[in-house]
Design brief:
- With 90 residues, the chain is an alpha+beta fold.
- It has one domain.
- The protein is built from four helices and three strands; from the N terminus they run H-E-H-H-E-E-H.
- A three-stranded antiparallel β-sheet has the order 1-3-2.
- Helix 2 crosses helix 3.
- The radius of gyration is 17 Å and the shape is globular.
- The termini are far apart.
Length: 90
């Protein structure tokens, strides 16, 4: 959409490579991963199945107590599709 609009306006900001979003907050992420609810995704982080620093990043504000997770969909899908014996936490 951005490329079409910039071309229509003559801004010359078109790009050959489309920009794709990689990191998603919990609510859209659980849906994109085909899970029932956001709690399943949080449980996957608590259990170590999805790892902070790998498939997950914590974007909480410095004084916040609760985490604000974001999930890399491609990495999460790869991790979840691994055989269970290869998915050791860590």
């Amino acid at each position: 959409m951005r490329a079409v609009l910039s071309e229509m306006l003559g801004l010359g900001i078109t790009s050959q490579v489309p920009v794709t979003r990689q990191w998603f907050d919990t609510d859209p992420a659980y849906q994109l991963l085909g899970l029932k609810d956001a709690e399943q995704l949080r449980e996957a982080v608590r259990s170590g199945l999805l790892r902070v620093g790998h498939e997950v990043r914590d974007r909480r504000k410095p004084q916040a107590r609760l985490p604000r997770y974001q999930f890399h969909i491609d990495k999460c899908q790869q991790r979840l599709s691994e055989r269970p014996e290869r998915r050791r936490a860590g």
